[in-house]
């Protein structure tokens, strides 16, 4: 009941706040109250680097990694199958905080849940909120697009890999300001390259800050080459909000 009341107030304020600044302040305040009523359901891995070379004023950059459909469930070790959580098992010198949530079996990534989890990590660890980077593969590539579109002020840069967006494919105007590097295999039969290319085309029409890497000989696995490329991490760090 309290959640419904808060949601009603939230909607009311959106429609009737007297000016833009007051509206934003009121919406943010109510949004936090509404979100406080929602339980975070994602378990996660969290890597905290001993390497402080990329710290600024004691704050560290953070990569949020979204796995694919095959790593869903309750076995958190599955999240280490690919990408940054696999890398940090082998390289403890990696200079980013790495947040790797796990999506429950049978579900897809939920932007609100991810935002709540990220905020929880921000509240408890030395995260540089100007340097939060979002990336994911396959289902996680879809989650990367959708979460950035829902929370376009959250991320300094995003890197969706072999993904797309079912719900938000025509809302790329919301993220045209976010530096974006898209990756896809030309021979992908699981998630066709058209899923990425149509969003990239739409973004370029808006003069978005976006680039697109296509692996001519790759199928669905376009993530191994991507996450093994040190240029990705240099590119992340070249961007700050």
Q: List segments where confidence is low: pLDDT < 50 over at least 5 consecutive residues.
A: 1-6, 8-14, 23-30
Spatially, the strands of the biggest sheet line up as 1-3-2-4-5-6-7
Strand-pairing-aware structural class: alpha/beta
CATH superfamily of the largest domain: Alpha/Beta hydrolase fold, catalytic domain
Strand content is: 15-25%
Percent helix range: 25-40%
User: Any idea of the CATH class of the largest domain?
Assistant: Alpha Beta
In CATH, the architecture of the largest domain is 3-Layer(aba) Sandwich
CATH topology of the largest domain: Rossmann fold
Overall, the morphology is globular
Question: How many H/I helical runs?
Answer: 8
Instruction: Give the total of beta strands.
Output: 7
Describe the structure.
The protein has 241 residues and is an alpha/beta fold. 38% of the residues lie in helices and 19% in strands. The protein has a seven-stranded mixed sheet with strand order 1-3-2-4-5-6-7, sandwiched between helices. The longest helix has 17 residues, at 20-36.
């Amino acid at each position: 009941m309290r959640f419904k009341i808060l949601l009603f107030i939230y909607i009311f304020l959106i429609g009737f706040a007297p000016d833009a600044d007051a509206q934003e302040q009121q919406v943010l305040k109510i949004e936090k109250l509404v979100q406080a009523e929602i339980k975070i359901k994602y378990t996660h891995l969290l890597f905290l680097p001993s390497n402080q070379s990329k710290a600024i004023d004691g704050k560290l950059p953070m990569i949020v990694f979204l796995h694919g459909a095959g790593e869903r469930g309750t076995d958190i070790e599955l999240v280490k199958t690919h990408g940054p959580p696999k890398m940090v098992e082998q390289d403890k010198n990696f200079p980013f905080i790495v947040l790797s949530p796990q999506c429950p079996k049978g579900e897809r990534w939920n932007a609100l849940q991810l935002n709540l989890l990220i905020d929880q990590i921000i509240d408890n660890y030395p995260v540089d909120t100007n340097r939060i980077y979002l990336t994911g593969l396959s289902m996680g590539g879809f989650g990367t697009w959708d979460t950035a579109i829902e929370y376009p002020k959250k991320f300094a840069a995003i890197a969706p890999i072999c993904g797309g967006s079912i719900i938000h494919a025509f809302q790329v105007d919301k993220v045209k300001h976010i530096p974006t590097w898209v990756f896809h295999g030309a021979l992908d039969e699981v998630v066709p390259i058209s899923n990425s290319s149509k969003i990239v085309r739409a973004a370029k029409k808006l003069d978005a800050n976006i680039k697109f890497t296509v692996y001519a000989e790759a199928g669905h696995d376009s993530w191994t080459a991507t996450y093994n490329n040190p240029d990705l991490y240099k590119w992340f760090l070249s961007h700050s909000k």
